[in-house]
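Tutorial handout. Part one gives the primary structure; part two gives the three-dimensional structure as tokens.
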Amino acid sequence: MLKIIFLLFIYFLFSCSKSNIEKGNICLSIGDYISAISFYSEEVKKNPENYIARLGLGKAYLQKACNSDTGAWNLACMHLEAAKNLSPQNNEIKKLLNEVYLERARQLLAIKDTVSALQSLLYSIEYDNTALEPIILSGIIYYKIGETKKAEALFKKAISIDSLNVASLFNLGMIFFIDKRYEEAYEQLYKAIKISPDDKDIIYWFALAQKKLSESKK
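Part two.
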């Protein structure tokens, strides 16, 4: 009995010796974002410039947001942005922000909040201008709201990053087709069909572009 009491006493002393950051990290690792937020917040109150505490808070609020608390997204982004400002050359935090804003955009698109989704996508691109998905999604949204030139520029940017990306080639081809630039549409759709020869949508629009191009040359 005395041995058990002694061990509990040692454990208590050890636990009390842990810093708020350490406690926050433990809670974050086991998914207890509520306690993690509490521990990291205590550290931020003492030292608002603590990068690790800000980063931890951002990640903890992300866990909360992913558990159907949509209001936590803004707090997650705020603390992650603060962490980025404290360590502006840190590529890890930039990559995380890119992924966070992209995921937020996906959720906003699911509830048809297109304007907010586009804003999140533009933030995502700001933190990683080589990530294809936010570039392509932004291009699609711009096209849908009538900003054709911006959409075209984004699809061209995506192709410059990956010349074999079918979605970029197809969407750029469609912009050219709708704009009656049939030769350019044919070129992009031809590239797309070479990469994805069984795609029925590409086959259809490629054949139509080919037909329109032939008619325009008569």
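Part three, for discussion. The chain is about 80% helix and 0% strand. Confidence is low (pLDDT under 50) at residues 5-15.
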